[in-house]
Amino acid sequence: MTSGINANGQRFLLDMKRMQERGDRAQQQISSTKRLVTASDDPVQLGSMLSLKSQLAKSVQGRANLGRFQTEVDTAETSLQQAVKLLDKAVTLGAQGSSSAAPVDRAALAVQVKGLLTQMVGIANTNVDGRYIFSGGMDQKAPYAVNLGSTNGVDPTSQFIPGRVVQDPSGNPLPAGLTADTVFNAAGSDGVFKALNDLRMALEQDSASGTQTATAALDTASAYLNQQLAHYGNLQSQITDAVSAANKSELTWKTALSGIEDTDMAAAAVEVTQNKTAREAAYAAESSRPRTSLFDFLK
């Protein structure tokens, strides 16, 4: 009989311990606002939670990288807009120098064109946060320096190599930014530097016909430069679309993650209340249970 009584008592204490643990777990979920605090809380959902967190972290990092690239692309687009305006000014100066109807101070115009060439080199050497954005893979060094003795009026400072590959948050590669040799120093009539330098030399030589020829070449170079500007406009659109898609995906993952790991406050509060009530009732029932021993049967 004593053994049965002890067994009942042990079972009661074990039940109370389990009830207390459930109540404590519900209270902890309320305090932390997280339903999954340890792996044992829900081993089945743990894998899904870790997968979602990994996807979310990868997307956030990718979006941050894309943000830095977007700054460079936006700066490049603005810089090329300025470059187009410089060529427009050069065309105006060339038109003035082409006139043979009245005396023209072509030497003075040549000085102005030289200034435009210097400014164009400055645009080619645009720097964003320590990176020369038109230098490709050699982005720690300015790509060009002015050298009026050179055919194009400039010298490259290093060999151009492809730039880094930039991916969107989903891992898809985006078109790379253009290098200065492609944008400003293209071969033939597309070369921006050469067109400016040819105009400068024609003006210095006081040649109306040479100036006229050089001015016509500027129109071709300007059309080419506008094509490069369009590349960055398209790239801006792709970046905007990629960021928008990433934001939507991240919202979906955050919602799913919240459903897995966040506490259902109402359900947890009910659990705490019901658990407390059940324990109090169990203690009351246990305290009212008759206490008998072997001596009671011997009386």
From TrEMBL:
The keyword Secreted applies. Residues 217-288 form the Flagellin C-terminal domain. Its main location: secreted. GO terms for cellular component: bacterial-type flagellum; extracellular region. InterPro entries: Flagellin, Flagellin_C, Flagellin_N. The keyword S-adenosyl-L-methionine does not apply. It comes from the Bacteria. GO terms for molecular function: structural molecule activity. Residues 15-136 form the Flagellin N-terminal domain. It is found in: Secreted; Bacterial flagellum. Keywords: Bacterial flagellum, Secreted. Transmembrane segments: none annotated. Flagellin is the subunit protein which polymerizes to form the filaments of bacterial flagella. Belongs to the bacterial flagellin family. This is Flagellin. It comes from Paludibaculum fermentans. The lineage of its organism: Bacteria, Pseudomonadati, Acidobacteriota, Terriglobia, Bryobacterales.
